[in-house]
Each structure stands twice: as structure tokens, then as C-alpha cells.
Write a structure and sequence with these properties.
The chain is an alpha/beta fold and 485 residues long. The chain folds into three domains: 280 residues, HUPs (Rossmann fold); 113 residues, Four Helix Bundle (Hemerythrin (Met), subunit A) (Up-down Bundle); 56 residues, no CATH class. Helix content is 49%, strand content 15%. The protein is elongated. It binds one RNA strand of 75 nucleotides through α1, α5, β9, α7 and β12.
Length: 485
RNA sequence: GGUGGCGUAGCCAAGUGGUAAGGCCGGAGUCUGCAAAACUCCUAUUCGUCGGUUCGAUUCCGACCGCCACCUCCA
């Protein structure tokens, strides 16, 4: 059983096989940086991140390119109201984009090309299209002649007459065909511009992706991802430009991420119903937001609500509790010892069951992700094992520490692919170390009180520590503590 | 008008031509000095409605109802 991807181009689930054995080239349409990104934008970025992580987990070498649209009408307009330059605005928001996505645990792409740094490449591509008769110049702007590409509409399945019937197509009398779109926009007075053979101007949106994808990944790329709203016209136009220029398929697998909704409607910037990713990150740990965003399959709409985030928070707490309990086995058992854990004569049924549950989780996880990156199902496989582990810990008769250690390693390995466990682990540990001795002392005193059934003192210590976000649990093996938020 | 999608327990959400993963919330227990955590049991003979195909459909087909999106910038 291999990996299958739903290809928007064929509208079918297809067996995935990259152009070059073992290597995957992937392009993801990035943000237009006129503002911070909202959680809806983050969904697409996160799915891209997880597809990449999973492909790597499966052994592929992935090259991911994600563009930054740093010049367009909205940037110009926003910069004007703020009284700063477009460049300044783009730079500030571009920086913010990386801050936000990295807080969410999204790994940077291998290349993050900016439109303004690829003007010559775009001019070259436009010129090529003019030379081929696929574009025409009017008043310093260059338009793509949709009629010159007879496969136009193959991605979105739109027929010319359908488009014309829609009353919402902007009528520009200068264009030969209402469907034609601009690849180069002549600058109006006062607008930022770049020199070109057709006069000063700036690139159109679609040309930048064609040009930068081909520059960094070649004429044919394996996977092209983006939000479903980009399917038309953006991706349709990318195909038209690129394929007419090269005569080769532009992207082999088109992946489109469904919308994040809020109150049943699409979360969108023009809707003004969005929540910035950074706002959400201030309220919830990154893992919680990630868990929420992958709790439905990427091709299905997902509704944002406080309640949903809380559900994810509770679910993740369950996962964390389990892993924290397992962690000590992992720390006590050297990894090498794990290899030979088959055997002993006194091997219990619980132990056997747990071992097989670990294998089951592994294969169910892979099957789920192989089925067009079904993250919701994949998460289910993880929680099934969590349940098994908890039962085994509860009974704990005849379960080898090795088995628990092995469960810990497998679970954390899988969680890494989805990024739902300690993705930004680094700072908390040193803080914990500093507190360690101090809290151990308090726990010792408390244990003394408990031995004398002095519950007042015992509970006081627990309650006061709780106020300091330190939670104590009494178990059979003594008391444990941890930071909570 | 054109195109596409969705409707599964109180909520969120997988899934399959043979009778429903997982999570959350709630209730009752077990454990515990009490908490916390965990465990057990309870919570869909049923998958929007009505028909059809089939030995059998939630899963295939058709109609209908409801919701959403794209066709204009938007992940």
C-alpha cells in the first residue's frame, strides 16, 4: 500500500510517485504580506508543513518552496493609509509571518522567494509568452491571451461561456477577452514600480508563482498546494502561463486545502471575521492549535470556535499525561536494550497486548496518512494506543519497562510528524531544573505531614503551589509535580 | 445562471457494500485521606428526508430538503 493523494486536477485519488525517485518537489502558495496571517491562512500553511513532515518521515527528500507576495494592490493601499512605503510594510509583515508560523511549529520552507526579488525572471517569462503570441501589451500593461491556451479551464472545469455568464467578471474594455488577465501592471503615478520593456510597472499575482516555482523547482513540480480559493483563477492561470511557456505539465499533484470557517462562514480577510494566528497563539499552546487544525481532514471545512479549541486542549492533556508517565521509563531504559525485548518466559498477556498495540498504532497511522494525509484518522490511532497504555499502567502486572519505553518512543516519533507534542521544547526544562530542589524540599515536608495525617498542612502546600501553576499528583510511587498553564 | 462540496451520537470528527475509529462534555462507579490522573460502565440497531439497485446501503444511483464555497482580491 502506497501513498495516495487526491489530485484536484483529475479529481481523483492517485497513487503518488514523484518525478525523481526518492525526491519530492513541492510548492505552496504563501501569504500576501499586507497584514498578519489569520488562523485560516495558518491551516493551509500547517497542512503543507505536515505533508512535508510526513513525506520526510516516509523517507523522501523534500524540497519545499513557499513564496511571499510582497507587492500588490493591497500592500500598496495599506502602506498608503499607514503612511509608510510598500517595502517597509511588506518587510514588517513578512517578518511577522515567520514569527507566527514558527510559533506554530511550522518549519521554514527550503526557499522563501519574494516577488520583488524575481522581477527579471518574471519579465523573461512574460516576454517569452509575448513572443509566442500568448500575450499582448496595452498602455504599458501585459495581458495573457486566454484563447491561446486551449486547455484553459482544465483545473477549475470552467467553460468560457460560464465565465462570461457570471455578472461578476470585471469588464475592462481594453482587454480582448474578459477572461484575459494581467501579467504586468503599468504603474500609476506614485506607485512603486520596476522597469520593464513595456514601461514601469509591477508583476501580476499569477506570474510570480509560475516564475518562482519554475526557477526554484524546475519546469514540472510534483506537488502544488494552496487554499481552495486559489484553484480559480490563480492556479488555473499559473497553469496557463507555465504550460504554454514550457510545453510541459506544471504540477503533477494539485492539493487544495478547504476553508476554515467561523460561525459557519468562511474566515476571510474581506469578511472581517478572522482571528489572527498570533492572537490564538497568545491564548493556546501551539500544539493545541495544531491539534485543532488537523482534527478534520484537510479537504473538509472546519469550523473555528472557542469550544473546539477547548476540546483540543483537553484531548492534548490526555496525551501529555500519558507521555509524561511513560517518559521516565524511556529515561531509565537505554535505547539499545529495547531491541531485544522479545522473549522472557514470564511475559504477560498485558505486555503482549501492549506490544501489539504499538505495532497496530504504527500501521494505522501510516495507513491513515497514506490515505491522502488523513490526519484526523491518524490522531485517532494515537489515542487508541494512549488508551491501551493507560490500561497497562493501571494494571502494571508483568509489563516490562522496555515495553513502556518503546511505547514512549513510538508515540513521540509519530507525534513529531504531526507536531502535537512538545514542538518548541527548549526553555521550560532549565526553569524546571532551577525549581527542582526547592519543590522537592516542599514535597518532602508535605510527605512528612501526610505521614502524620496532617491534611491541613499537606493540602495547603498543594493548594499554594497550584496557585503558582505547579500541580502536584499523589501516586502509588510518591508525589510528582509539573508546571501547568 | 455555471461549478464544486457538505449534512454521522449532546458537541467535534473518521469511516466502510455486511451492520459505526478517536476526542470533548455529562452521569454512575473503582482507586485515593481529599485532590489530580487513570480505569470500568452508561451516551447512534443508527449515519438529513424519500425512493431505487442489491441477499444486504450509512456507504452505489435518483429526487428532495438544508447548509457552505468558488465564478472579483482572499489560504
Amino acid at each position: 500500500m502506497g501513498l495516495k493523494i487526491y489530485n484536484s486536477l483529475s479529481r481523483q485519488l492517485e497513487e503518488f510517485s514523484p518525478l525523481m525517485d526518492g525526491h519530492v518537489s513541492m510548492y505552496s502558495c504563501g501569504p500576501t504580506v499586507y497584514d498578519y496571517i489569520h488562523i485560516g491562512n495558518a491551516r493551509t500553511a500547517l497542512i503543507t508543513d505536515i505533508i512535508r513532515r510526513y513525506l520526510e518521515y516516509r523517507g523522501y527528500a523534500v524540497k519545499l518552496v513557499q513564496n511571499l507576495t510582497d507587492i500588490d494592490d493591497k500592500i500598496i493601499a495599506r502602506a498608503k493609509t499607514l503612511g509608510i512605503s510598500s517595502g517597509q510594510l511588506a518587510q514588517t509583515n513578512g517578518k511577522a509571518y515567520f514569527e507566527d508560523t514558527q510559533r506554530l511549529g511550522i518549519q521554514p520552507a527550503d526557499v522563501h522567494p519574494k516577488a520583488t526579488e524575481h522581477i527579471p525572471e518574471m519579465i523573461e517569462l512574460i516576454q517569452m509568452l509575448i513572443d509566442k503570441g500568448a500575450a499582448y501589451v496595452i498602455d504599458g500593461s501585459v495581458y495573457y491571451r486566454v484563447n491561446s491556451f486551449n486547455e484553459y479551464g482544465k483545473l477549475s472545469r470552467r467553460k468560457p461561456e460560464d465565465l462570461l455568464a457570471g455578472a461578476r467578471v470585471e469588464v475592462d474594455e481594453r482587454k480582448e477577452d474578459p477572461r484575459d488577465f494581467d501579467m504586468w501592471k503599468a504603474a500609476k503615478p506614485g506607485e512603486p514600480s520596476w522597469d520593464s520593456p513595456w514601461g514601469p510597472g509591477r508583476p501580476g499575482w499569477h506570474i510570480e508563482c509560475s516564475s518562482m516555482a519554475m526557477k526554484h523547482l524546475g519546469e514540472t513540480i510534483d506537488i502544488h498546494a494552496g487554499g481552495e480559493d486559489l484553484l480559480f483563477p490563480h492556479h488555473e492561470n499559473e497553469i496557463a502561463q507555465s504550460e504554454l511557456a514550457t510545453g510541459k505539465p506544471f504540477a503533477r499533484y494539485w492539493v487544495h486545502v478547504a476553508f476554515l470557517k467561523i460561525d459557519g462562514r468562511r474566515m476571510g480577510k474581506s469578511e472581517e471575521n478572522f482571528i489572527f494566528l498570533r492572537e490564538a497563539l497568545d491564548r493556546y499552546p501551539a500544539e493545541v492549535i495544531r491539534h485543532f487544525l488537523i482534527s478534520a481532514h484537510y479537504r473538509h471545512p472546519l469550523d473555528y470556535s472557542l469550544e473546539s479549541l477547548q476540546k483540543s486542549e483537553s484531548a492534548l492533556k490526555r496525551l501529555n499525561n500519558c507521555l509524561e508517565t511513560l517518559q521516565k521509563y524511556h529515561e531509565e531504559i537505554p535505547v539499545v536494550a529495547e531491541i531485544d525485548n522479545a522473549t522472557p518466559s514470564n511475559v504477560s498477556e498485558t505486555n503482549m497486548n501492549l506490544l501489539s498495540a504499538i505495532d497496530t498504532m504504527q500501521s494505522r497511522f501510516t495507513d491513515a496518512m497514506d490515505a491522502d494525509f488523513n490526519s484526523a484518522q491518524a490522531v485517532g490511532s494515537i489515542f487508541s494506543l494512549v488508551s491501551q497504555v493507560n490500561k497497562a499502567i493501571g494494571s502494571s502486572n508483568g509489563v516490562f519497562p522496555d515495553t513502556f519505553a518503546s511505547a514512549y518512543r513510538k508515540l513521540t516519533e509519530i507525534c513529531q510528524v504531526l507536531g502535537i507534542y512538545k514542538i518548541n521544547e527548549d526553555n521550560t526544562d532549565t526553569t524546571a531544573e532551577n525549581y527542582d530542589a526547592l519543590i522537592e524540599l516542599l514535597l518532602e515536608i508535605r510527605q512528612g505531614a501526610r505521614d502524620q495525617k496532617d491534611w491541613d498542612t499537606s493540602d495547603k502546600i498543594r493548594d499554594r503551589l497550584k496557585q503558582l501553576n505547579i500541580e502536584i499528583k499523589d501516586t502509588h510511587d510518591g508525589s510528582t509535580w509539573k508546571f501547568v498553564s
